Amino acid sequence: MTNTEFTKLWEKFIALGEEALTLNHYALADITEIKNPQLWKEFITTPKVSEYIESEMAIIRETSINKMIQQSANSRSVGQSQLINTLQKVKEDTSQKKGPTFIFCHVPLSAEQTHAPNIRVCDEHGIYQDEDGAFVIPKGDDED
Question: Which residues pair with 129 in a beta bridge?
């Protein structure tokens, strides 16, 4: 890629604003007059551009976390604190790839649901008490 090409791509990229940070090379080729996805790929993978994207995304991620923390005082969302925690971990782990991130949340039963006859409250291993008070351990998939 020549300096002239880089400059032209940089101008187009910056002109797109925040949207450009989340677009891949195919999308950039689709929405700009530079229709070469390979040229866009080379552009967004250059160290200068990838560092710029990462620093901008870090700012966006940080401000999003701060907004969520600010709003959490007025929220009754069960999973919001877990989401905030997960986003903070993503921020810390950006240099290391550790696989997918799963967000689990527990939604407490309402009073009506708690006393319903078809409800079984299990622990994290799936163990529950039957109607006689005996503990039931569910069979694994490989057991019959």
Answer: 135
Say whether 90 sits in a helix, a strand or coil.
Answer: helix
Residue type, 69: I
Is there a domain that residue 52 lies in?
Answer: yes
| Short-list 100, 19, 91, CA closest to 61 | 91
Instruction: For the full predicted model, state whether its pTM sits above 0.85.
Output: no
Does residue 116 lie within any of the structural domains? no
Residue 128 in domain? no
The residue segments making up the domain with residue 73 are 3-92
Digitized pLDDT (tens) for each residue of the chain, 144 residues in all: 888 898 999 999 999 998 999 899 999 999 999 999 999 999 999 988 998 998 898 888 888 877 777 776 666 666 766 776 776 676 665 555 556 666 666 677 788 887 787 777 676 666 767 777 777 776 654 444
Q: What's the structural domain count of the chain? A: 1
In a domain, 9, yes or no: yes
Exposure string for 76-87, b = 16+ CB within 10 A, e = fewer: eeeeeeeebeeb
